[in-house]
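Open question from group meeting: does this chain pack into something compact, or does most of it stay loose? Before anyone orders reagents, we agreed to write out a predicted structure and look at it together. Recording both the input and the output here so the notebook holds the full record.
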Amino acid sequence: MNRQSRIPFSAILVALTLFPGCSYSTDGAAQQGAVPDGAAEKVAISTPPPIEPKPEPKPEPKPEPKPEPPAPAAGSVYKIKDGEWPMWGGSPSRNMVNTREKGIPKTWDLKTKKNIKWVVPLGSQSYGNPVVTGGKVLVGTNNQLERNPKITGDKGNVMCFQASDGKFLWQAVHDKLESGRVNDWPEQGICSTGVVDDGKYYYVSNRAELVCADLEGFLDGENDGPFKEEKYTSPIDGDFIWVLDMMEELGVFPHNLATSSPLIVNDLVYIHTSNGVEKDHITIPSPRAPSFIAVDKKTGILVWENAAPGEKIIHGQWSSPTYSFAGGRPQIIFPGGDGWVRSFEPLKGELLWEFDCNPKDAVYDLGGKGTKNEIIATAVAVGDRVYVGVGQDPEHGEGIGHLYSIDATKSGDITESGRVWHLGDKDFRRTISTCAVKDGLVYAVDLSGFLQCIDQETGKSYWTHDMLAAVWGSPTWIDGHVYLGDEDGDVVVLKAGKKLEVVSELNMDNSVYSTPVASDGVLYIANRTHLFAIAEQREPAEQRENTEEKK
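Structure tokens returned:
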């Protein structure tokens, strides 16, 4: 029943702002002007015999400028395969809605094993959300379980399981940073939720590395890609294609933990770097280091960066990027550590618009007593609108928050012109959760545990459900129902719609800090220590016949 977080958020969310107006010159070299025709210089000597003039060389044809790659359009940025949940939010829009899955269980029982397909142990704390692809399930956790007995102690782990039966396949293991908890909080593991693309898994490690890993690990007996410096190389270890060390190569100073969940749009990977404050919670060691970056997904080479908010970072930057196609423009949406949402052109990082989610009179006080917030939630893009709420480290407790609907067709500072509607103060408190938007309704929850159903166009709240506990995860719409877990370990299933209707509430034996996901007929829920695969169990034909005979 306690709404205050029991685990230091610094651990879990420790989940990319760039130089405003950053651009790249596309101008070619200046052409020399043609020499003007003029009278020949007079001489006082006799004119020599005429010399046959040499033919002027033909000017070499100018090379055709290389065409820029086309800007990504709606629906062309990422192909999602049926029966998969390949990234945080399921799609580049990050909308927590799954319209592909049907028949997902609404009830289950851990004691009787009703509808429990399989259960596997994770580490002692698990904050990464499940990703399902190609018959595999991947999730971030820590090394408490020590699946490889040769690798001991506190680490950050990504574990990969077989989706059919939960068989453990391999794990990617990352040592803790020597700098300690200011950059890499103890026992938190990997909080980033990865994204799958072309047989590769992209995620952010606890060491603030953007990692491209082979989905087969070392199980296939091959060390793929140019990266050959893996420390752990047994058959159950992870195989890295390339690694971008953001602290070493970009000068980033992650506060408490790097957590961003990567976004892939065509050939680029986008992430927040988690650049933040020092342990005194005041000094910003690297204000010029990038907060938001775009990287070539094949090579790991930096394509563009932006350092906003620079000196105005409040605490940390633990959000994740979103893709939007609004007003005929492709956009990458980056919620920042100063409470501003920024939109960038995907290929060069040119700033399109920015929106301040804090009232102008808001004040930030250390420890969370103030009214000014950063943004930890991921923005959701639906049509021409962006939906996002503000919040703080859950360790700071409850407080005044704000939820916005933003018109993403505008340009420049759209704090006033782009506001469609707003809920805040007592009507919506701090949040670290992402929305689900479906059938004209927005499902949004705050850290205090109040889940609301809100009109998508007007911002009117139709109902509120009290979870009676703090909520770190996000509501997910699956087959006409909304699923949501809380810190007390309860998962509620509600019927979607304007009328509040609770279908079931089930306990998972431990805190649920992640978000339920569905894939190929199975519901996956990770609590702090275990991953559950939940699926409808049908009676064997013989048992059904006996039951019908008794009737």
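Observations to bring back to the group:
The helical segments are 9-12, 246-250, 541-550.
The first strand starts at residue 97 and ends at 98.
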